[in-house]
Design a protein that fits this description.
The structure is a single chain. By secondary structure, the protein is α/β, with parallel strands linked by helices. The protein folds into 2 domains: about 70 residues, Arc Repressor Mutant, subunit A; about 150 residues, Rossmann fold, CATH 3.40.50.10490. Helix content is about 55%, strand content about 10%. The protein is built from 12 helices and 7 strands. A 5-stranded parallel beta sheet has the order 2-1-3-4-5, with helices on both faces. A two-stranded antiparallel sheet has the order 6-7. α10 links the parallel β3 and β4. α2 packs across α5 and α4 crosses α5. About 25% of the residues are buried. The N terminus is likely disordered.
């Protein structure tokens, strides 16, 4: 739901919305009349709130909540994570990435510094990647600030390589930073889930790992990052080779 709709809520509708979002199990099991009684509002008020949330009926809201909760239950099962990992590591990974890894090695070996960038979970992995590169003697740093003013840099940083991590490859702040860095003539290497995302298309070189995306309610992206860790480790070790 967009923030615009939230801002259009009355104070009563805001209370209803907060209850619905924090009591999904109860909403699924309840009927409209009993739910309204629990929240201490009228059924009509609940319906108005639901329609502002983008649903046509109470049943449609329940259906959406039920599907999302079932998806979370599947994603949270350990077997699901094992299946994702098995699917990824059963691929001929070295053959799949060999040419791209060679291109990345050539770019980094001709650069003066490697800079990792990401936000959220990708920011944490950017820090990890930077440290792992340093462990193998590669001059590298990281930045997790989505609003860092790269566009104000006047010094020539064209010999810097930026490795950008982004699961969706569509995060507005990441795209904006890449645009600023490209204007500064930085080489952009990205690691994303798909090769057709905007971040991938803006990059000079892209590594994509192509696994099932897992997005929980409230747009929480919980897609496994095991492939990203593998690719960072692989890059660091390949760069160490002479």
């Amino acid at each position: 739901m967009s923030q615009r709709n939230i801002f259009n809520f009355t104070s009563t509708e805001t209370d209803i919305y907060d209850f619905l979002m924090s009591h999904k199990d109860e909403v699924i099991k309840s009927n409209l009349r009993n739910l309204a009684k629990t929240i201490h509002v009228s059924p009509a008020s609940v319906l108005r709130c639901i329609k502002k949330m983008g649903f046509n009926s109470f049943y449609e809201l329940k259906f959406d909540f039920r599907n999302k909760l079932q998806a979370i239950q599947v994603y949270c099962q350990s077997d699901h994570l094992i299946d994702i990992s098995r699917d990824f590591f059963n691929r001929p990974l070295l053959d799949q990435y060999q040419n791209t890894i060679t291109d990345i090695k050539n770019v980094i070996e001709n650069s003066k510094m490697v800079f990792f960038f990401g936000i959220g979970t990708s920011g944490i992995l950017a820090e990890y990647g930077s440290r792992q590169f340093a462990n193998f003697g590669i001059n590298s740093f990281y930045n997790k600030d989505p609003y860092y003013p790269f566009q104000l840099i006047e010094k020539d940083i064209s010999s810097t390589v930026m490795i950008v991590l982004s699961v969706s490859g569509e995060t507005h702040e990441v795209i904006k930073q890449i645009t600023s860095l490209k204007n500064l003539k930085c080489k952009i290497i990205s690691i994303t889930n798909t090769s057709y995302s905007m971040v991938a298309k803006l990059s000079d070189i892209n590594l994509s790992y192509n696994i099932g995306e897992e997005v929980f309610p409230d747009e929480i992206n919980a897609t496994s990052q095991i492939p990203v860790i593998f690719l960072l480790e692989l890059l660091a070790r390949e760069l160490k080779k002479k």
